[in-house]
Specification:
The structure is a single chain. The two termini are 50 Å apart. The longest helix is centred in the middle third of the chain and has 26 residues, at 101-126. 63% of the residues lie in helices and 0% in strands. The chain has 283 residues and is mainly alpha-helical.
């Protein structure tokens, strides 16, 4: 492990990751907000993508600064500046043409990493940018004073998934706006999951389906990711026989830490469960 860390190849890779992921760190925090504004998020993603593309066009100068930092760290750690040994007859991949050690690391690590980031951002977020932005205007907190044109892009894209007629969507949207106009702005749902709970499936079948789609889009919610991460921590080998109800309860307690649960609430729930318990609770 120590040998891998005290390796010039590792030092260069860490510096490259630190430089590039520094641009996406705050964005990743923003994408995990429960009341995410999709338009703002996609605008920031587009800005970061353009920045990465400019770095790609001027990769020699950008990587030059990164390489200087890597060399400084290597000097402090007494790590020799060198590149991996290159075979004459390479079987698994072709030898990268280069004239110096710096150019070797730029071509083998920096440029592929940067290209992968640009490609991933475009594929994940920018492919259906207008459709995703259009979907958010179904939310009660954003739909007020918005015409049907704001969600037409999403309706046209998901028309095959809608249970009702396309002609009735506009009427549903007008009624949906009227419903929330009289509600206090602070009481209007700001997330797709909260809006889905408040949406009557019978009265607004098409909007209900669009809200379901909005709730499961990766860019619009991080609830599923939090659930998977929590279950990964809870469902260990020692808890493999935990019942479903107990596992769900532990997961909810872990996810919703902002909800205060007192001892009295737990005891009342325990006592009113309806099961005969021969236990003496001493407090």
């Amino acid at each position: 492990m120590l040998n891998c860390i005290c390796n010039f190849n590792f030092i260069v890779a860490v510096n490259i990751s630190s430089k590039l992921l520094g641009y996406t760190y705050n964005l990743s925090q923003y994408l995990q907000k429960s009341n995410l504004d999709l338009a703002t998020a996609l605008e920031q993603i587009e800005t970061i993508t353009l920045k990465f593309q400019k770095m790609r066009e001027n990769c020699s100068a950008v990587f030059g600064d990164i390489y200087k930092e890597a060399k400084a760290i290597a000097t402090l750690l007494n790590v020799e500046e060198k590149k991996p040994r290159i075979c004459v007859n390479q079987r698994n991949r072709s030898n990268i043409p280069h004239c110096s050690t710096e150019e070797y690391y730029m071509r083998t690590i920096f440029i592929p990493h940067l290209d992968d980031l640009i490609s991933s951002l475009n594929d994940r977020f920018m492919t259906q940018k207008e459709t995703i932005i259009s979907l958010q205007y179904i939310l009660p907190s954003l739909c007020i004073n918005k015409s049907f044109l704001f969600i037409r892009e999403a309706v046209d894209f998901y028309v095959d998934d809608l249970p009702g007629f396309k002609d009735t969507v506009e009427a549903e949207y007008d009624l949906w706006i009227s419903k929330w106009t009289s509600v206090d702005p602070s009481s209007r749902p700001t997330t797709s999951t909260d809006a889905l709970i408040s949406c009557d499936k019978t009265l607004y079948p098409n909007l209900y389906q669009l809200l379901k789609i909005l709730a499961i889009l990766p860019v619009s919610t991080a609830s599923a990711e939090r659930s998977f991460s929590t279950l990964r921590r809870l469902k260990t080998y020692l808890r493999n026989s935990t019942s479903e109800n107990r596992l769900v309860g532990l997961a909810l307690l872990n996810i919703h830490r902002n909800i205060c649960t007192t001892d009295d609430m737990v005891l009342d729930k325990f006592a009113n469960s309806g099961r005969a318990r021969r236990l003496k609770l001493v407090i």
